[in-house]
Amino acid sequence: MNEHSRPISIFAALILCIAGSGLFAREDADEPLYTPGLLQCFSPADKAKGADCRIARLVALHSPAGNTPSPFLDAEPLEVEWHGFLDIDLADDFTFTIEGRGRFTLTLAGKKIIDSAGEDLSKEKPVTVELENGKIPLLATYSAPAAGAAELRLFWSSFDWQREPVPPMVLFHDPSDKAARESRSLRQGRELFARLRCVRCHSGIRSSETSMPELSIDAPSLLAAGKKFRPDWLARWIEDPRGIRKQATMPRLLHGAESRENARDIAAWLSSLGKPGKVKPTVSPEVIKKGGELFADLGCFNCHTLRKAPAAGEEEADRISLRNIGDKWRPRALEEFLLDPDRDYKWIRMGDLGLKAAEARALVAFLLSRPSDPLKTQTFKRPPNPTRGREVAEKLRCANCHQLAEEKKQAGLLYPATNDIAALTKNGFKGGCLSASPPGRHGIADFGLEKEQLASLRNFATSRLDSLERSSPAEFAGRQLRRLRCGACHDRDSKAALWPTLEEEVAHLIEKRAEPEGEPGSPEAKFSVVQARPPLTWTGEKLRAEWTAKQLAGTLDYELRPWLRSRMPRFPARARGIADGLARQHGYPAASPPLTKSDSEMARVGKKLALRDGGFSCVSCHGVGKKPPEAVFEVPGTNFMYASERLRREHFHRWMLDPSRVVKNSRMPQFADDEARSPFVKYYGGDARRQFEAIWQWFLEGRDITPPVK
């Protein structure tokens, strides 16, 4: 932190604000469009192998020994570069520091300001540099050590904020850069290859624990299709999946004049697998109303819409319509699905919300009470033939993706993967499934790929199939946060959550609900508090990866924020991979350092500092073990008994020094001034950093923590 003050006249401040807003900037139609993130490029020692680039949110990296941060390069020592721009709002002095091991350089506006090497880069002296406002060209380089993990993190501080990782909100790149375009194309093709399950029908791809995780994506089990789905919907879906859902990844496999009859035959066979459950009696209006409230409270509208047709911009939101859900699901089966979404489909994007039976029943009642569109009448030449349907399904290789029988019988339905991938490169992947024109014969998959997707998939398949044998946890986490629509509920970086923009659609479902009465945070008023969901910007730096994995898998033995009406969905198949990848994005290993034993003397001081009188009043909003918060204002905080098992110590200190810098508009007060001093000079002479460390030592008591007493 810079130890100086900055007197400034009102006129000068006005000039700086106007200049920073761009009002004095020269309008230039050719000025590049800046996109968040830096272009991160990896180069092996053997330059003949070529480099690989991707977009990175931060100047940070962690790659264990024997691993590679890029799936397109072998595991070997790499040279890394970050290219782009550092966006400065106001001219000031900025101090940069680093952590990690290896060699690192940082060049800003053409001037090299850091050139350091060693086993512990945190011991290098801070470097202070004056920067003008605007987008400053940035080039950072890193050379991994010859042995051991590659590890790097870049920090900065200024007069206005304490030391923090250089945030993603100020890092940009030019998306028109050739390397950026090539990276997008390769990675889009690679993701499509895995997500479309190409390996289920094509051989030649080796898979192991270190391979791209999505190669193991399954498909919905149809072992009990007759119990779950209505025959007419099955037939229409099999004939043309994208005719029902534009976002469907299941290909259209039936073509020609007989496609509708064949689809009906397959549906008849599938309908013989499992018996429908008993229809439950009519539900009351109160249950339907409760289901509507749950639909709104749980944020179901962030991934689904109840509308008849997409509204303006809705296609960009990529939501799945539930308007005609009754055409697909049998009521009892839909309840069972909501209670256990991944039972028959491990990689399903639908998260497990931990619903109770009564809640699932209410949601189903609400959804089935909604208006739906009448199905168009179809005509057929003959009755459905389930025996023929099974024969057609076998020829279409349906069992290569879907479970259609018990394990011993499933093997008999499998059609061996053929058409070795290597052989398909001879024609540039321009035939069959990747033909530019729609296929005309049965069994050729039509994925409905757009021109750009088709080009990316061909480009990848003809050049970098070897990358499927390697995994990048950081990239996996990025893909899954996008696929699971985490940004619908959570802010991240400069992108606001979709929730506030969509909730008006469901406002009528809860407008007449009586809010609970009582003091905020009390059991009587569990939900009468601010319903803010935590942002994801700093998740990998904030949370211990082991805890994040448990949260995502749904294996925590407690509810962290019981006052929220919304619930964190569970994604067991992806949990560990996402948690590891988020940590790697921030330059941390997936394995957190073990927690140390609490310093009893410091913990004693920390406990006193948590008191309402003579301390920071932490216990007003936070529970301590079984003791609830004493006087919540607007929203309670998480229970301190879980703090040390959940948080990284470094993030805790950064948060305590300036909460609103970490989470914009945080309701957590700031207790330290710009010089890291607190008003409680009785403890450590008012040294806020030592005081916060004392609180952390108290937190280390974990589940055995005891509340402070006066």
Can you lay out the helices and strands and say which pair or pack?
Layout: H1 10-21, E1 35-36, E2 38-44, E3 52-56, E4 60-63, E5 78-88, E6 92-108, E7 111-118, E8 127-131, E9 134-143, E10 150-158, E11 164-165, E12 171-173, H2 178-195, H3 225-228, H4 231-239, H5 241-244, H6 259-271, H7 285-297, E13 304-305, H8 314-317, E14 320-321, H9 325-328, H10 331-339, H11 357-369, H12 386-395, H13 407-413, H14 421-424, H15 451-461, H16 473-483, H17 499-502, H18 539-542, H19 545-553, H20 575-585, H21 600-609, H22 643-646, H23 649-657, H24 659-662, H25 688-699
Parallel strand pairs: 13-14
Antiparallel strand pairs: 1-12, 2-3, 2-5, 4-10, 5-9, 5-12, 6-7, 6-8, 6-9, 6-10, 10-11
Would you write up a description of this structure?
The chain is an alpha+beta fold and about 700 residues long. It has five domains: about 10-175, Jelly Rolls; about 185-220 and about 415-470, no CATH class; about 225-395, Cytochrome Bc1 Complex, Chain D, domain 2; about 475-585, no CATH class; about 600-705, Cytochrome Bc1 Complex, Chain D, domain 2 (Orthogonal Bundle). The protein is about 30% helix and about 10% strand. Strands 1, 2, 3, 4, 5, 6, 7, 8, 9, 10, 11 and 12 form a twelve-stranded antiparallel β-sheet that branches. The longest helix is centred in the N-terminal third of the chain and has 18 residues, at about 180-195. The chain is globular, with a radius of gyration of 28 Å.
